[in-house]
Amino acid sequence: MHVRSLRLSHFRNYDSLEVGFHPQLNLFLGPNAQGKTNILEALYCLSTTRSFRAASDEEMIQFGRGEGAIEGVLRREEGEQAIRLELRQGKNKALFLDGKKQKKLSLLLGRLPAVVFSPDDLFLVKGGPALRRRYLDLTVLQMDQGYLAHLQQYERALKQRNSLLRQKVPEMQSQLSVWEEPLARHGAALMLRRREAARKLSDFAGEALGDLTGGAERFEVRYEPNLPLDGPESSVADQMLRALAQARREEMARGVTVVGPHRDDLGLWANGQLLRKFGSQGQQRTGALALKLAQLSLLAEGCRTAPLVLFDDVMAELDAKRRAFFLNRLQQGGQAFLTGTSANDFSAASKAARIFSVEGGKVVRAQDGPGG
Length: 372
Known about the structure:
Layout: E1 2-11, E2 14-20, E3 25-29, H1 36-48, E4 67-76, E5 79-88, E6 94-97, E7 100-102, E8 114-117, H2 122-126, H3 129-143, H4 145-167, H5 172-212, E9 219-224, H6 233-254, E10 265-270, E11 273-274, H7 275-278, H8 281-303, E12 308-312, H9 320-331, E13 336-340, E14 354-359, E15 362-367
Parallel strand pairs: 3-13, 3-14, 8-12, 12-13
Antiparallel strand pairs: 1-2, 1-4, 4-5, 5-6, 6-7, 9-10, 10-11, 14-15
Helix pairs in contact: 3-4, 3-5, 3-8, 4-5, 5-6, 5-8
């Protein structure tokens, strides 16, 4: 499966754009701030329904416009399919599949899995736990639609419970208990699924880092929940209920829920040391790359199709060895979209790519690529 074409309307700096892609490798070259990343952002929206850089849909709509649209045509074994996302100021996105409006955006999840590599990936290692939880959630969401329902219900219960804790209303303890059962039930489901994903990510990331460093470094991903995960979901839910009861006095004083998967972290370790605290800049960058390569492998396994690779202006930050390693991995994967300022950064792969020149919101095909 691959994306045959992309059409944008009033999206970021594109008033109107239609571009056809190579089924394997696509390279977008040009100066910074010309619109290269916007193309990757649109593709990521078609995969996950959300941006990897914008906090809201309104940011993606062209300035001065009330709405915009992203439309992609997928070529699959069973035929072509058109996906259209409409972005509207002050309203939720609208999804159309082959021209028919869909009730749920979540129908997109897993249909076109994608992994994005960007300069901000270093913050996965250096940043706070929320970034790593988001990375883990977005990985699992693309493989397991049931995970989305658990996540939405958990966040709803958490929001209501925190609101009660802040208000300090009379009879608060009895009202808190109303939200604790769904909080524990959905929280247990999230934690067990996260733990399994982290275990597989650790295997894949360890393999990637071992290959990248010639076996000189070991990499481990550890899921770090804030309560023990013993037994099946029902047992974990019971443990969470007990932990909530024990923490109630602290939570009433602080006005916030301190127990549950919203407090968990993903520990990243290299050679037995926590990468965030003790890793050099080079080790942290290599660890972030290994983590994204692991995500690529896990999604390929879980979705049973090769994910899109969206590689945004990162190649110049890698040394020659890491560039060659990554480009070699690309040959083994699915359709890839890479951005950069210089063709020299992609010399090992440019002959196999369809190359586009991007400047001032204009995209011009400069090279067809094999079979183009």
